[in-house]
Amino acid sequence: MGYNSIVLVKQVPDTANITGDVMKPDGTVNRAKLPAIFNPEDKVALELALQVKDQYGGKVTAITMGPPKAAELLKECLYMGADDVILVTDHKFAAADTLATSYVLNKVIKKIGNFDIIFAGRQAIDGDTAQVGPQTAEKLGLPQITYTEKILELNNGNIRVQRLIDGGHEILVSKLPALLTVVKEASVPRPFRAKRAMAYKNYVPPQLATEDLDVDIKRCGLFGSPTKVYNIESVVLSAGDHENIEPTKEGLGQLIDKLMNDHIFG
Ligand SMILES: Cc1cc2nc3c(=O)[nH]c(=O)nc-3n(C[C@H](O)[C@H](O)[C@H](O)COP(=O)(O)OP(=O)(O)OC[C@H]3O[C@@H](n4cnc5c(N)ncnc54)[C@H](O)[C@@H]3O)c2cc1C
């Protein structure tokens, strides 16, 4: 018995550490200069999947679509407790926008089959679109619950979930299988297990490429990506952009006047 989960995970540049030399003159990010990390909400999504497994049994499979280097991320999933991992990699998948990414991920999920819950992070900290989870659910024809902060119950083929919404919470019940996107508030990811880290240290995750999947090449990678970035601006704040406001009643009054004049307030 138990519930089988698939977790969508993405390796991202650590955007919290962007400094001057990370930005290229054309305004794009020089990824080689930034450490690659586990997208934070995907780690929380994996934690929720592992909690389901701990409580009810079943299996957790983590998948990522990315360059060969993304194998590191999958090893971290194994260190935390995932049972299986799959690296989806092929230069024909590169430069994918969310449409092409969700297209390929839905094909991979169909190939894996036998799942009850798909977990994704709410959004990736680099692309920041929050589209891949919902688009994947749509392509699989599955119900989706976004902004998951708590799984309240799994019973009789249904899942009851608490969502984080503006100013409160919402409780939804869905039939399984379903796709959940997870917010960072949902849990604290468990640390790596030392024994598992030693066991999987030299593990090479299995890979899937275009020829292993029932995909239409025209819907993959750059070809299948209608999103075009028209302009990228590198915003560098200089000292002139700062203003010191005294923490006094007068200072606050001046700040409010300024915000109203700039049409930020009012
Ligand atoms: C060879 C290769 C190179 C790539 N290089 C880049 C790159 O340089 N930059 C880049 O941003 N993307 C790259 N990708 C991946 C793909 O293009 C992006 O994942 C996609 O556009 C995601 O958009 P987003 O960041 O807005 O995700 P969002 O929609 O914000 O992500 C929401 C959630 O969807 C899931 N998700 C998103 N992307 C993936 C993924 N790839 N695999 C599994 N789960 C995912 C995660 O759970 C994530 O939290 C590459 C892919 C390949 C095959």
Write the layout of secondary structure elements.
Blueprint: E1 5-8, E2 11-13, E3 36-38, H1 40-56, E4 60-65, H2 71-80, E5 84-88, H3 98-112, E6 117-121, H4 132-140, E7 144-155, E8 158-165, E9 168-175, E10 178-182, H5 194-199, E11 207-208, H6 249-261
Parallel strand pairs: 1-4, 1-6, 4-5, 5-11, 6-10, 7-10
Antiparallel strand pairs: 2-3, 7-8, 8-9
The protein binds flavin-adenine dinucleotide.
Structure characterization notes:
The protein folds into 2 domains: 5-219, 3-Layer(aba) Sandwich (Rossmann fold), CATH 3.40.50.620; 236-266, no CATH class. The protein has helices at 40-56, 71-80, 98-112, 132-140, 194-199, 249-261, and strands at 5-8, 11-13, 36-38, 60-65, 84-88, 117-121, 144-155, 158-165, 168-175, 178-182, 207-208. It is an alpha/beta fold and 266 residues long. The protein is globular and about 65 Å long. It contains 6 helices and 11 strands. It starts with a strand and ends in a 5-residue tail after the last helix. Helices cover 26% and strands 23% of the residues.
Features:
266 residues, alpha/beta, 2 domains, binds flavin-adenine dinucleotide
